[in-house]
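User: Sequence for ATP-grasp domain-containing protein below. Tokens please.
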Amino acid sequence: MDSHLQGVQDVLEALQQDRAAAQAAKTRSAVHSFPLTARMWARVRSLVLLVLIAWSLPISLALVAGGIAYDWACLLAARKGDELKRRLRVARGASTRAKSSKGLHMCRHLHRAGWRVVLVDVHKNWAAGSRWSSCVAAFRTYPLPNMDPVGYLKAMEKIAVEEKAKLFVPVSIAQYSVYEALASQRLSRTLGIRYCTADAPTVAALNDKIKFSDLCQRIGASVPKAFPVTSPQQLMELNSRQASFAYKPEVFGGKRFLLKSIHYAATHRGDMFTLPCEPQALVDYIKTMGEISEARPWQLQQLLSGREYSSYSVAHEGRLVMHSDNEACLSCLDYAHINSQQIWDWVRDFCKKTKVSGQLCFDFMKDDSDGQLYAFECNPRCSTILLNFYDHVHAVIAHGKAPFAPHNSARRVVWIWNEVGELLFVRLPSCRSFREAARTVAEHCRELVTCTDAVLDACDPLPFLGLHYMQVPALLLRNLRRGNPWKKVDLCTGKLVELGGD
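Assistant: Structure tokens for ATP-grasp domain-containing protein:
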């Protein structure tokens, strides 16, 4: 009973913090004023990119046509009649997150396993390219869960009833994962719908970096040292205690510590701010942190040095049934299964000891100093690493087979227009001669030949066109009106990364 009450308390705290963060972001967006020159430059960039997108349309059409012709030619040559019939012609399931590539892939897996797929997302993602997928039978929208949780739950129940859903597969983002876990449990309780996620208390606890770290320490799983910070004064005191060390590597017991928000904070994800530091640098950073309190704590986590990895797994009652891992970076747009036995063992042991069910994504660092693998974060939701399973006929979530990993023959997954952009705007400008530029182009093209695009599928080409020529232009047109400075177009998540955005 105590554990149940603690779980309920964790959920309530998570919902309260998510709503507070959403309200703060809304207020910040309303009151924050960027300089006129910054707004004008953002609009110019959006306009230029819209022109480039229009110019690229014939190339994309040629890619789609070539892919379709090649795919069908291979099937005809191999005389795969059953596959041809399947492509020319159901239980009902619902999946979320239309704007992202992982949401599209989940729909494709469910469809190939025989489900009628209803794709749902928030109202503002109406232009998502995935809605045009041949795997999607219907596309529905709902209110923002963290702004209108009651309206969200009612909308999900209405959609489930009208579409006669039998399975709910959340493909969550950080801000909505607890809400979607609550919706899953509600749909199961009221309509008997199966779901693929952990329960809401588990999602809330694993989302919390401190609680996840404490859990790992209790079960003997390796994690970096970490502790919560609940006030600016505490931060200043911790930093000043080390003043006598004159900011040498020996501080904090010989380690540096990374300052992180315990809950999702888009504007601070890539800061990499570490302690100890110069006192004035900490004062300046505290001004950008927003609230730091008992209700919204931050975390100091030991900074490790080494190679970073991520994993995506599906577990059922402590049994690991689906798993893939990937070399990682802050904004990963390159996915390839590495089949690390060390990561597999860590995840398998964690699932076995916690008896967890649902979708789990772990972030790891293999420390250079001792060679040990440390998990520094858990995201209890679907990961883009799901794309490593692109060539599986059935997903384990839909078909119930276990355990399995991506095929050895699976290619590296990239976003082709992102690769083109990297070539034109990153690699070529660094070339010092025409010969070097020609060699760079040739190497880049050879690399692309060995890859597969994350969205383009010869059997399902419309999401590729929808992403690049409807979803992204809609975001850029909105930016022309708002003028918010932006960093990049993220084709993986299907969003325009704006300063002060989500």
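The first strand starts at residue 91 and ends at 96.
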